[in-house]
Design a protein that fits this description.
The longest helix has 32 residues. The protein is α+β, with helices and mostly antiparallel strands. The chain has 18 helices and 43 strands. The chain has 6 domains: 68 residues, no CATH class; 254 residues, 7-stranded beta/alpha barrel (Alpha-Beta Barrel); 93 residues, Up-down Bundle (Substrate Binding Domain Of Dnak, Chain:A, Domain 2), CATH 1.20.1270; 47 residues, no CATH class; 229 residues, Beta-galactosidase, Chain A, domain 5; 95 residues. 49% of the residues are buried. It is globular and about 105 Å long. α2 packs across α3, α9 packs across α15 and α14 runs parallel beside α16.
């Protein structure tokens, strides 16, 4: 089977030749011009392949290299000896021994570098084709790989992405059974740990965990002990957050492998094999394939270049490397010539020593050589922090709707799981819910693929994604509503019943004079439910330039920009002559990858915003608001409603954007009067500080960076934070912060981001202690939900199945509170420190339970003793490192 389809509305690439562009302009670009049945003469074919390999070595050899001169003389002698004109089979094979001797060369000149060639087919789950086409691509490529395994005894094949195996199982059960046999025989390696190769920027930390849980779990279910997972393999993901080393280790993996960092446009990443250190200090051995290509044709020049990269970058500390080879994206994986080249290179002088082995075994060799280097006093270099790709910065923003849908789905999944613990069901209903959540998680994880979620696919992919994600969100909302209904049935409505999904309790002073939101009670517990009563609201006023709520004030200029904000006695001020939330338009025409990239030069091409805003003050429900509407660009309009709600510490900015521009970026800027050498950004499972200056090329390259939920400038005395509900493109330089709100490229989807968008962000004044910012950001993103409203009265007890008291400042995130996946009735809680310092945590289950034990990401108990009973309270002490991820299992009494 073969396919040649129009790219569904995509134009050709910038590197394509004119004849390629002309072909794709035809209605039917694919033409089958010839089909032949042939009988392959195996010895002659092998002779030709060996000759071709040596010919390529000669092309790329140095005139000063004795091996090059040996090849020139040897190949020339064979050519001269062959008869002119029609050559007979016997005449050719008469020189086979001479060709083999030339291939081997001198046995004492064997390379000290070991190349591990692995057959590979990297298939983008969607990109310039839809997921339905990927299903067919996988069947074709997997069938080709299976035939190659049958034909070539020394050939092994690696393919990651468990979701693609499930596609093949559904499309062709017979083919999948053949794969199962090849896996059992050790010839086919299903590895890489994750369900899909996800984007590294937008998914939450919990999503990364579920990628491994669902991917590794599926492989365990299908292949058992034949498919052990040792390494995380993400060859094409656009950068990697600093939480990953800890997640990799907690999943029982010990190696990380990628290729993509070679795409950095400013600085060359300095290492091949090194230790990557994460937020919490966890190290994982990491390997960047030095051949710089996961679709290699296995050509001699690539092998020689890889060996040179190892010596230049790592000084030969570890002289083993992975070289995936084969046609990707439906090309069928390794072709026979590539497989034969890999076999011939195994015994060819002048090339790295090619040793066929499984990728998992290569990991063992990398670790062995690393330990040997350390014994010699040369430990591997350490890279501390995120792996920032100096390219594809536009993927933080393109197709913002799917980023928003993903964020909503992540939050709904967490809430549905949490409500199943707060208001439990029968064991039968719980198992049915777990099965449905498994399917929903896999839908969300699938759409986190690194060309879907980043916004770099064609329109048809997003048409399909709107249907799939829309259905998932609809079902998740229904499941959450069902959970809230169970709560409603169990809590007497003696006031307002409120569900707080945030990780931190909403604390109020005993007088009931302040709160998060309008409810006035003493506390709404974290991940719990309480009934509350209302109290008298503060006086609210609104004018064209001022909002007031009690003692809180926000002032605006005539353009609707924020001059200063004071809430809870803490204030922040804009830089002189500027305002916070200053909107800016820029022309956006990247040199190469339009949806992928945002070039540094875009800031040099601002588009003036000349329209005057229409400003309307109002007070609704005791909330002062300022509605600011204005035209943008050629045909767009934006409406922003700034408000100060009772109990909140920030100025909320709700945005309705009707975007009709093309090749244009809209940003919100926050120039402050603060002097700080760094800006703090929220990230998955923590935060990182990035330099606010451009002293080096490494710092200058970070003009646009990814971030989650918040960013902060702080000078030690006070600061300004910007909170957001899923806006991932950010900047922080020279006392100013920025949010990239929307970007509208024309390729590969010419309709990208045109239409209506709704989102929120907020300005938070920060006092001397910045540790509260992550807590405020979580409240902003996980607002409490009113479950029911009853008669007025005193607040009554609610539902709080697991009390979590964190000692020390800063957020302790509850990234998951869920029924155990095995349907046992146990409860799993995952905690993540955001304080950046060691702390003690008291875990107090209110449900009947046998004990509380630490567990791994797959919810299996860990023998290591980490929890100790509290002597004077009902609960268990858990000590946590800075930024540690800790999973615990509350084992219920067996019924």
């Amino acid at each position: 089977e073969a396919a040649c389809n129009l790219p569904l509305g995509a134009t050709t690439f910038w590197w394509d030749q004119p004849e390629v562009r002309a072909r794709w302009s035809e209605r039917k670009p694919g033409r089958l011009e010839c089909a032949e049945l042939v009988v392959l003469d195996e010895p002659i074919w092998q002779f030709v392949e060996r000759f071709d390999l040596l010919r390529r070595c000669l092309w790329h050899g140095s005139a000063e290299d004795p091996r090059t001169n040996d090849l020139r003389r040897g190949l020339g002698a064979i050519v001269r000896a062959l008869p002119a004109g029609a050559m007979t089979r016997s005449a050719v094979l008469a020189h086979a021994d001479a060709l083999d001797a030339l291939l081997r060369g001198h046995s004492d000149a064997i390379s000290g570098t070991t190349c591990v060639p692995i057959g590979h087919a990297h298939i983008d789950t969607a990109w310039l084709w839809r997921i339905d086409e990927t299903r067919r691509k996988c069947v074709r490529s997997f069938a080709t790989a299976l035939r190659s395994i049958e034909r070539f005894p020394g050939f092994n094949f690696l393919c990651s992405q468990a979701a693609q195996y499930q596609m093949v199982q559904e499309e062709s059960p017979a083919l999948f059974e053949g794969i199962r046999k090849a896996v059992k025989a050790g010839r086919w390696e299903p590895n890489g740990a994750m369900w899909i190769e996800p984007d590294g920027t937008c998914p939450s930390g919990e999503s990364f965990i579920r990628q491994i849980v669902h991917g590794t779990g599926w492989w365990r279910e299908q292949f058992g002990a034949s498919a052990p997972q040792r390494f995380l393999y993400l060859p094409d993901t656009f950068g990697f957050p600093a939480c990953l080393p800890q997640i990799i280790t907690l999943a029982g993996l010990d190696t990380f492998i990628t290729n993509k960092m070679i795409w950095s446009g400013t600085n060359r990443f300095p290492h091949v094999t090194f230790r990557w250190r994460g937020l919490d200090g966890t190290d994982v051995l990491s390997h960047f394939t030095p051949g710089h290509n996961y679709n290699s044709e296995f050509l001699p020049n690539d092998l020689v270049a890889a060996a040179r990269n190892i010596e230049r970058q790592d000084q030969g500390r570890v002289r083993a490397y992975l070289q995936p080879y084969g046609w990707g994206d439906g090309g069928g994986g390794p072709d026979p010539s590539q497989i034969e080249r890999a076999a011939n290179a195994r015994r060819s002088q002048g090339l790295p020593t090619c040793e066929p082995m499984k990728a998992g075994d290569l990991c063992g060799e990398l670790h062995r050589q690393a330990r040997a280097s350390e014994r010699w006093g040369e430990p591997l270099p350490v890279w501390d922090g995120e792996l920032y790709l100096e390219a594809h910065r536009g993927t933080y923003t393109s197709q913002r709707w799917i980023k928003q849908a993903n964020r909503r789905a992540e939050r709904l999944l967490r809430q549905v799981e949490m409500l199943a613990v707060i208001a439990p069901m029968s064991r039968t209903d719980e198992r049915a819910l777990l099965a449905e959540l498994d399917r929903l998680w896999k839908t969300v994880l699938l759409h986190q693929f690194h060309d879907i979620l980043p916004g770099s696919s064609i329109k048809a992919v997003y048409d399909d994604a709107r249907v799939a994600m829309g259905a998932a969100l609809k079902r998740l909302n229904a499941l959450r509503d069902a959970g809230l209904s169970r709560v409603r049935e169990r809590v007497p409505a003696s006031g307002e019943v409120v569900f707080n999904p945030a990780s931190t309790a909403i604390e109020l002073d005993p007088s009931g004079e302040s709160a998060h939101g309008e409810a006035r009670i003493q506390e709404i517990p974290e991940c719990g439910v309480s009934t509350v009563r209302r109290a008298k609201r503060d006086r609210a006023t609104a004018t064209r330039t001022t909002l007031t709520l009690g003692h809180d004030v926000a002032e605006f200029d005539a353009q609707g920009r924020v001059r200063w904000v004071e809430r809870d006695g803490v204030s922040c001020v804009a830089r002189d002559g500027h305002g916070l939330n200053e909107l800016a338009l820029y022309e956006d025409r990247p040199r190469r990858w339009e949806a992928w990239d945002t070039d540094r030069e875009h800031a040099e091409k601002p588009i003036a915003i000349t329209s005057r805003p229409t400003i309307t003050p109002m007070v609704r429900g005791g909330v002062p608001m300022l509605r600011i509407e204005r035209a943008l660009g050629r045909a767009s309009r934006i409406v922003q409603t700034c408000s100060m709600r009772p109990g909140e510490s920030f100025l909320r900015i709700a945005t309705h954007l009707d975007w009709r521009e093309e090749r244009t970026v809209l940003r919100a800027l926050f120039p402050t009067a603060l002097r700080s050498r760094s800006v703090r950004f929220g990230t998955q499972f923590g935060w990182i500080d990035r330099d606010a200056h451009d002293n080096t090329s490494w710092q200058a390259a970070q003009f646009e960076v990814p971030g989650h939920d918040w960013m902060l400038i702080h000078d030690g005395q006070g600061g300004v934070a910007v909170l957001d509900d899923g806006i991932f493109g950010k900047s922080g330089k020279l006392g100013a912060m920025g949010l990239t709100l929307v970007k509208s490229p024309n390729f590969p989807d010419p309709t990208c981001d045109r239409g209506v968008h709704e989102f929120e962000y907020a300005i938070l004044p920060v006092g001397p202690d910045p540790s509260s910012v992550s807590i405020e950001a979580e409240w902003f993103n996980n607002p409490s939900i009113t479950v029911a409203t009853g008669r007025a009265g005193a607040a009554s007890a609610g539902m709080h199945p697991v009390g979590i008291m964190a000692f020390g400042d800063g957020l302790l995130e509850v990234s998951a509170m869920k029924p155990a996946a095995d349907g046992s009735g146990d409860v799993v809680v995952r905690l993540v420190d955001h304080s950046g310092a060691p702390r003690q945590v008291l875990v107090s289950p209110s449900m009947e339970h046998r004990d509380v034990v630490p567990c791994d990401l797959f919810e299996a108990p860990i023998a290591k003793a980490r929890l100790t009973p509290c002597a004077d309270r009902d609960g268990w002490w858990l000590g946590m490192r800075a930024f540690e991820i800790a999973s615990i299992r509350i084992r219920r009494a067996r019924r």
